[in-house]
Amino acid sequence: MRLLCMLLGFLLCTAAAAAPVRIKDLANVDGVRGNDLIGYGLVVGLSGSGDSLRNSPFTEEIMAGLLERLGVNVTDEAFRPKNVAAVIVTATLPPFARSGSQVDVNVAAIGDAKSLMGGTLVMTPLNAADGEIYAVAQGSILASGVEASGDAASVVQGVPTTGTVPAGARVEREVAFDFSQMKTIRLALRNPDFTTAARVEAAINRKLGRGLANLMDAGTISIDASVLGNVNPARLIGQIENISVEPETAAKVVIDHKSGTIVMGEDVRISRVAVSQGNLTLRVREAPVVSQPNPFSPGNTVVVPRTQAEITQEPGIGFAEVSGESSLSEVVAGLNALGVRPREMIDILKSIHTAGALHAQLIVN
C-alpha cells in the first residue's frame, strides 16, 4: 500500500509540474513514415546449432539454390550441414532514406535451429508490401541469447534464435515522395483530442500568421503552406514542430492486473461513495491415516480418510466513505484511508466504476 501511495504521489507531482510539450512530440506529419521490409534468408557459420535438414527441408532448398547460383552443382548430392539456418529478416525503411543508406535488421530463425550466435547472414533481398526490393541485408549477427546443452541437461539464457545486424541492410531503391512539392501538410495527433488540436492550431497561427493552420477534427490540423507564398515546406515544418503547446488528456485509470499496478490521471474524480471490503477464505485439508492389522493377525490394510475444513472471514474495513474531492491528492487520500493492498484496490476501483462513481475511463490490461 505504501508503494502505491508513493507511486501516485510521484505522478501527482509530475502532473503538477508538467510543462508545455513541443508539437513534434505530440503529432506526426502526414506522409512522413517508415515502410516495413521483409525477406527470407540464410545464416551460415553456426557451430553445429543450425537447422536439422530432415526437419527443415526448406533450408536444404535455399542452400542448394544459393550454391547453384555460385556455380556449385549439388544435384543428387546428399549434404547435411549443421551450421546453416533459414531465417526471416525484417527491417524498417526510414522516411527519406536515400540509396546507399544503411538500416538495422532483425533476424529470427524459422526452423529448428538452436542458436544463431556467431552466424553470418548471407545476402538477403528485402521486399516491401508492393513486392519491390528496397534493400539488401548481409552481415554478422548479434544474437540476443545463448544456449548450451548436454546429454542430460540444457541451459538457455535469453532468446538465442533471434538477433540483429546493426546497419546490416543497404538501401537500393528510394521511395518516390517529394516533400518539397507539398502545398498542404497535415499534422496527425498521436492522441486525438479536440482541446489539444485547437491549442495546436492557435499556437501555429499565433506564431506564424493567422490562416496558416486549420483544425479539421480531433486528430488532424491542416497546414496551408501557400498562405506564406513560396516557402520550403521542410523549413516550415522545422519551425512548426518546435512550437510548444500544453496538451489536454482525458481522465483515465489504467490497471495492470498481472503486476498489481495502478496509474491515475490528474483529472480523475470520484463521487461521494461508501465502500466495504472483506475476504472470505475456505481451507480444506486432507490428512489420510493408514490403518493396518498387527503382525500375523487377520485383516487388511486400509487408508482411512481424514478431512479438516474451515472457513475464515477477515474483519475487513467495514464501511468507509470516500468523499467526492476536486484533486488527485485528495482522491488518493480517500482511497488510502480504506487501508487495503494494491490488488484489493483494483477490485474496489472496478466496483466504484460499475457503481458510476468513478468519473474516468477505466482501462484494464
UniProtKB/TrEMBL annotation:
User: What's an example GO BP annotation here?
Assistant: bacterial-type flagellum-dependent cell motility
Molecular function GO terms recorded: structural molecule activity
* Record localization: Bacterial flagellum basal body
Question: Cellular component terms, GO, for this chain's entry?
Answer: bacterial-type flagellum basal body, distal rod, P ring; outer membrane-bounded periplasmic space
Keyword Chloroplast set for record: no
Quote any Pfam family the record assigns: FlgI
The answer to keyword Coiled coil applying to this record is no
Q: Which family does it belong to?
A: Belongs to the FlgI family.
What is the protein named? Flagellar P-ring protein
Q: Which organism is it from?
A: Paracoccus limosus
- This chain is encoded by the gene named flgI
